[in-house]
């Protein structure tokens, strides 16, 4: 019993640590301009107002930004899987020299920060005519995600017994059929978890879309949120709070709906060292 | 014929090689080239020079930046792993309410870096909306200067980063925990092993590969983190929270000094590469 | 599981419908000005505050009206607006610079006054004299011309400015301080008597810290950042002394407790306003815009707050630092240049537009004649007080090393205020050394 209670106390502490900042931002977003300056602060606003949300929705095209993010995430997920699946298959099912080294080389790409390649990519894209274009932007996103996605998928494929392949091979299946008919259906959990990791990363990208897109109507929400940040001549804390909540809501809803699925996927052995 | 070629391992890697080559390798080579030039945004670079590296490595601030970077990375990785592990073990108890814990952890993880910075700068504020200092005053203590003394500022950026990053580490470790066969624990119980012994002899060794992968990935992510720090402190006060990636950001986007920014980038790359090799070596020497 | 899938589908559907609303044809929209089917299409990068995404309705109304006039005058042209976020100045400026370098620059752009020098140096901007007339060029305040005029050619329209003051509680303080010593005395007295913060300013790591609090006193002592050749001299001779004094005052404020240590993390006016609102501060060093903000958050601003020039080392010294944004034409096409210049003049630069816009935006005009001809400015005591301060106006130098010098100074200030060092001279020497290094490697 004592043990149970102490676990519950820990549950409470951990949840508060993760949730308090978000709950506080929600509280701020529901306050009037003058109430945010009130000390001591109130948790539940004395006067609940949705004006900040209306203000943000009216003065920025937040819904467009959300939609743009959504599109970019879809392109990135599809593109990344398309490239990473065959690569992961190769790493999982073929034997060749220097496999570990090659994997390491791919991992090096994971270490490159967008800050670093931002300007060279801008110049490069300017020559290729790929600026202001979701194809160009998605390709960079995809390149960023490939290393981790390949790793994750390789782990998932490794967990599938080779006997399945052998059986299908005897039946005369081609390599492509093997992947398509045998591996992928069994590897669905791995694909699902890769999708989630890719989505979350693509959702958070900030510098690259800002550099590579100049039309405001093309911005994803991670950049669009800055449109509510005031300059010093304007009080903006409550608007920023409301905009943050709007920007986070779709991601939180997605996590809420998919959380069971994520965990099932991961625990099905998708991630192994 | 078709069938033959599909039997070669490299055929399956062609798409990956193409995408990485065209969209990543080319810009990367460009970065390396730029790091040996005096390029700025707005001028055509010329010549080959070590000046950027010499300037950075001999500059008075560089070792301070290195120190801050290492502290930031080390503390972030350590606490993300620890807190992630604790949370994963807690969730694994599967009591009523464990899904709330899970959900709250994942929620923090989907917050983009720049918004993390914005949220935490509100939390840390000394003004009326700074909720943390309000609690601290309720406890009868003095306000904590979260963002304005060097050591607290560094603590604060680490805390914000841990808040955001733990979700990733926690989920991965939870997955690994679930993958440990129950028979192992059952057998240990029969042998009379205590909970602590079980943790030490079963859980930890079974988790080790995952901990390694996690460490490598978190290290890489943390080396590249600049957005939340930028939104929180802009690297200040003084240079007390300026990490390498923020240094690169400032060089490129404030001074327009592409050459030096690229040199910072190459140094970052070498550092995270070294760490990865070290980790991999540790892991390899074990198997 | 099916229920959940349905839910997701519904959410997606909702997201899709909420964005695909039909847009009626309007002359001015947030991202387009003019006829949607126009033959000539200009592009412009404009800060959010000067678009229909601006924060307040009166600003939006002004932009809608002024931009519509341009659109009516040029039915065959339209402007596609790139709206820039107001909080990301250096990112936006670096991006614009990258665009200009690759030949993708917008046809005209809104450029911060302390960045425009680099655009002019690189030859990205075009002379505007032929489009706006010599008389108009002459009418601008000297400190703006120091930056945007080269060889008699005006390369950008400096649309508005601001000035720095010391705001103080007039119901508490009878004699506002004029010197640093007085400021510290008054602040400590207030702290003791009223139990409030004596003196506050935004001294975090950002441009505003040095622009609002270091340069005004540095210039008042006759300090220079660069010599005639553009060589940094900020840490040499008389300039060094001026900078040491200026940083020393700010350090003294914190060390004596006249200002709370939290000032070293403030990078915006919200934290200052929070203290003002709770009656917890006696003096605040800030810009001309603060007065209206105070008025917004407390009821009796008139009875409580007033402003005077910033305290200086000696009572007879005075200088101001003046910010603001400029508008530059980047297009190579003469037709577009003329259209762009016309937009800038109609919305920002002509005397009528400037009077109207600065009124609505709570800015200060940069053309002398506006203070004389427009009754809002000529008959208002507060406005004339602000005008007077422009006589002491200074702009940050148009040297491409300014950002480096500013950043180094911000870092030094942060180190001094938070007790990482007490040696002001050594910090100033370091600024000079690093800046000189940069200058030599860029030469």
Automatic annotation (TrEMBL), chain A:
GO cellular component, one term: plasma membrane
Keyword Phosphoprotein belongs to the record: no
UniProt signal peptide: none
A Pfam family assignment: BPD_transp_1
Localization per record: Cell membrane
Membrane topology term: Multi-pass membrane protein
Transmembrane segments: 7-26, 72-91, 103-122, 134-153, 182-203, 239-258
Major location (coarse): membrane
Coiled coil spans: none
Alphabetical UniProt keywords: Cell membrane, Membrane, Sugar transport, Transmembrane, Transmembrane helix, Transport
Occurrences of domain ABC transmembrane type-1 (ranges): 66-258
Gene3D superfamilies: MetI-like
GO biological process: transmembrane transport
InterPro entries: BP-dep_ABC_trans_perm, MetI-like, MetI-like_sf
Family that this chain belongs to: Belongs to the binding-protein-dependent transport system permease family. MalFG subfamily.
Protein name from the UniProt record: Carbohydrate ABC transporter membrane protein 2, CUT1 family
Source organism of this protein record: Halanaerobium kushneri
From TrEMBL, chain B:
Record keyword Transmembrane helix present: yes
Domain of life: Bacteria
Pfam families per the UniProt record, alphabetical: BPD_transp_1
Domain called ABC transmembrane type-1: residue spans: 66-279
Gene3D superfamilies hit by this protein: MetI-like
Topology with respect to the bilayer: Multi-pass membrane protein
UniProt subcellular location: Cell membrane
Swiss-Prot/TrEMBL GO biological process terms: transmembrane transport
GO CC terms of this entry: plasma membrane
Record InterPro entries: MetI-like, MetI-like_sf
UniProt main location, coarse: membrane
PROSITE patterns per record: ABC_TM1 (PS50928)
Keyword field: Cell membrane, Membrane, Transmembrane, Transmembrane helix, Transport
Transmembrane segments: 9-29, 70-91, 103-124, 144-163, 263-282
Protein family membership: Belongs to the binding-protein-dependent transport system permease family.
Record protein name field: Carbohydrate ABC transporter membrane protein 1, CUT1 family
Organism of provenance: Halanaerobium kushneri
Automatic annotation (TrEMBL), chain C:
Originating species: Halanaerobium kushneri
The keyword Cytoplasm is annotated on this UniProt entry: no
Bilayer-crossing regions: none
Superkingdom of origin organism: Bacteria
UniProt xrefs under InterPro entries: SBP (IPR006059)
Molecular-function GO terms, alphabetical: maltose binding
GO biological process, one term: maltose transport
Gene Ontology CC annotations of this record: ATP-binding cassette (ABC) transporter complex, substrate-binding subunit-containing
N-terminal signal peptide: 1-22
Keyword Transport belongs to the record: yes
Upper classification of the organism: Bacteria, Bacillati, Bacillota, Clostridia, Halanaerobiales
Protein name in UniProt: Carbohydrate ABC transporter substrate-binding protein, CUT1 family
